[in-house]
């Protein structure tokens, strides 16, 4: 009996620390599965009935990926097919081992107006809403956990689900005339892609409540003042501001991919795990780079200059 109790205590300790920590960065892990009543293949069959637009991914030799929401006739609103393509691109990025950074933007000088209303009308039951909620929380949580430093480039408007997507990025940049607005209250709903939870973490719960309950229009100045965005760019043109965003991001991704990716993973675990779990994850990540090529090269350089 005593032995069984000891084994049980040991199992509980393992499950609360190491197992949970390992699961956090396991590639392909989602929040919801069949045990939550979520059946991904059924969801995909529903969503593929609503075509239009695309989600495009360009991977640069610099280690920066550019993810473009491309449905300009509808202000880059997500069609059903675009929801599916976003998941496909996230999976592709999970397997991009050379990647260090990611820019998310919308085509034709605007970010995204959220969901295509044609799909929203057709998925009108509470069950449909919950299913889409679980699908997008799965996708954007996997997006957040990517070992890439990500930045949302907001031109024009980021409305509703588009505003929620910006909160899944590590950083946000705005052009001078752009706007972020969580319009959910005016649609009779609340954020459902994880946007309320992430917004409260970014700007604090009191400010988040003001922004959401007031459906406030956050222009670039207001967004900068409350800490919603990190910088307002000088450019407004599509090509110029993308170049400016790339230059801004490059200051954070200088160095070998394995080091940048380990840094992002350690910060992500700090956000999601309890203190002890996060410390253990940081320790494990250190083991992947200590004594590695970048570490040895840096030490050799220092010794050379110290002589």
UniProtKB/TrEMBL annotation:
Top-level taxon: Eukaryota
SUPFAM superfamilies reported in the protein's UniProt record: ClpP/crotonase
Pfam family, one: ECH_1
Protein's UniProt keywords contain Lyase: yes
Subcellular location: Cytoplasm, Cytosol
Keywords: Cytoplasm, Lyase
Known catalytic reactions: (2S)-ethylmalonyl-CoA + H(+) = butanoyl-CoA + CO2; (S)-methylmalonyl-CoA + H(+) = propanoyl-CoA + CO2; (2R)-ethylmalonyl-CoA + H(+) = butanoyl-CoA + CO2
First-listed, main subcellular location of the protein, grouped into a coarse class: cytoplasm
Keyword Cytoplasm belongs to the record: yes
Matching PROSITE patterns: ENOYL_COA_HYDRATASE (PS00166)
E.C. no: 4.1.1.94
Spans traversing the lipid bilayer: none
Family: Belongs to the enoyl-CoA hydratase/isomerase family.
Cited function: Decarboxylates ethylmalonyl-CoA, a potentially toxic metabolite, to form butyryl-CoA, suggesting it might be involved in metabolite proofreading. Acts preferentially on (S)-ethylmalonyl-CoA but also has some activity on the (R)-isomer. Also has methylmalonyl-CoA decarboxylase activity at lower level.
Protein name: Ethylmalonyl-CoA decarboxylase
Classification lineage: Eukaryota, Metazoa, Chordata, Craniata, Vertebrata
């Amino acid at each position: 009996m005593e032995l069984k109790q000891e084994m049980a205590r040991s199992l509980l300790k393992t499950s609360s620390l190491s197992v949970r920590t390992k699961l956090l960065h396991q590639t392909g892990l989602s929040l919801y599965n069949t045990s939550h009543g979520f059946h991904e293949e059924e969801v995909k069959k529903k969503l593929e009935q609503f075509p239009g637009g695309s989600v495009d991914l360009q991977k640069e030799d610099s280690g920066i990926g550019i993810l473009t929401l491309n449905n300009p006739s509808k202000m880059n609103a997500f069609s059903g097919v675009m929801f599916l393509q976003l998941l496909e691109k996230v999976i592709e990025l999970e397997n991009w081992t050379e990647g260090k950074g990611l820019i998310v933007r919308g085509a034709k000088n605007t970010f995204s107006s959220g969901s295509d209303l044609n799909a929203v009308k057709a998925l009108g039951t509470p069950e449909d809403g919950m299913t889409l909620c679980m699908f997008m929380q799965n996708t954007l949580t996997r997006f957040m956990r990517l070992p890439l430093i990500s930045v949302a480039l907001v031109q024009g408007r980021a409305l509703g689900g588009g505003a929620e997507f910006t909160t899944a990025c590590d950083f946000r940049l705005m052009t001078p005339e752009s706007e972020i607005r969580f319009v959910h209250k005016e649609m009779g709903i609340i954020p459902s892609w994880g946007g309320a939870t992430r917004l409260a973490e970014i700007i604090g719960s009191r400010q988040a409540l003001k922004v959401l309950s007031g459906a406030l229009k956050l222009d670039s100045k207001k967004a900068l003042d409350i800490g919603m965005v990190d910088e307002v760019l000088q450019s407004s043109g599509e090509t110029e501001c993308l170049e400016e965003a790339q230059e801004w991001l490059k200051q954070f991704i200088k160095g070998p991919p394995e080091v940048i990716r380990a840094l992002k993973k350690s910060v992500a675990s700090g956000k999601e795990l309890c203190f002890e779990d996060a410390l253990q994850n940081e320790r494990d990540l250190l083991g992947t780079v200590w004594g590695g090529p970048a570490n040895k090269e840096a030490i050799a350089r220092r010794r050379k200059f110290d002589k």
